[in-house]
Specification:
Blueprint lengths: L10 H7 L10 E5 L3 H7 L4 H22 L3 E8 L2 H4 L2 H24 L3 E5 L7 H14 L6 E8 L1 H17 L11 H6 L11 E4 L18 E4 L9 H12 L4 E2 L2 E2 L7 H9 L1
Parallel strand pairs: 1-2, 1-5, 2-4, 3-4, 5-6
Antiparallel strand pairs: 7-8
Length: about 270
């Protein structure tokens, strides 16, 4: 007996979804969105055209993930290294594109009951961008469906540095450094993603075989799915194809098969709200 197809899926998405086991969907999917520049070059267009085209991919991917009941989706939108490698004009365009995206997509996020969060060094972004980000977060704060997290000015190495600094500061404010306790659980409590479970699946577009300083701690046991599809061409059906590949694999944690008990998403959500 086939599972009921969620409302809103198109014909191609429905065909792939019918091959999935709804009981074994990932709890958290992370996506490295890559290929905007190559997409534009192949069309003899400026790089910013690729960034602009990628917004439609975000919309399609987010809506499909929400419709099938994925609890958490994290998108690598803007790395800390982008400040150093990209021309100022391109960075300015990306910041403006982000503001326009947030303004335009909040109604859609609310319609789909999606809550918006961010990870990264937000305080280093332009003030006008921070203001728009805060507005969008507050506008979706009451939604109880999927958590969409945008990684902005994000670096996994910087996240670990910030986590260790936070641990030291917490100990210093709680009786002194002799109270500092360093173990895996302590580190996890100080990561940007402490409100989320670790990703089960990470998807990278454009065929590149690297993590690019993205969620290095959290992706320790994630399944990796690489597609040659460039990000501006990525749609909800490609997300479903990645999930289909994920479901073919035997999940392992530290060498153990997937019958090892893992914390459920709701457990992390309860911890984050406490």
């Amino acid at each position: 007996m086939r599972a009921t197809v969620p409302a809103g899926l198109d014909r191609k998405e429905t065909e792939v979804y019918q091959r999935l086991d709804p009981a074994r969907l990932p709890k958290h999917i992370a996506i490295i969105m890559d290929g905007n520049g190559r997409w534009a070059r192949r069309r003899h267009l400026p790089r910013i055209a690729g960034h602009r085209a990628g917004v439609a991919s975000v919309r399609s991917t987010v809506e499909t993930a929400s419709r099938i009941g994925i609890p958490a989706l994290t998108l690598y939108a803007f790395s800390e290294e982008n400040w150093k490698k990209r021309p100022a004009s391109e960075v300015d365009f990306l910041m403006g594109l982000l503001c326009r995206y947030l303004k335009g997509e909040v109604p859609t996020l609310n319609k789909n009951n999606i809550r918006l969060e961010y990870i990264g060094r937000q305080h280093e972004l332009p003030a006008v961008v921070q203001s728009k980000m805060q507005w969008a977060r507050e506008a979706t704060a009451q939604n109880g469906g999927m958590v969409l997290t945008l990684a902005l000015n994000y670096s996994a190495r910087s996240e670990l540095v910030d986590a260790f600094r936070s641990m030291v500061n917490a100990a210093a404010n709680n009786g002194g450094l002799q109270h500092l306790q360093v173990d895996e659980e302590a580190v996890k409590r100080h990561l940007y993603t402490r409100h989320l479970p670790d990703p089960d699946l990470v998807i990278r577009t454009s065929g590149e075989m690297r993590l690019s300083n993205f969620l290095l701690w959290q992706l320790a046991y994630a399944e990796i799915y690489v597609t040659p599809t460039l990000w501006p061409e990525f749609r909800g059906v490609h997300l479903l194809e990645g999930i289909a590949e994920y479901q073919k694999r035997e999940r392992r944690y530290g060498g153990l098969a997937d019958d090892v008990s893992q914390p459920h998403y709701s457990d992390h959500a309860k911890m984050a709200r406490s």
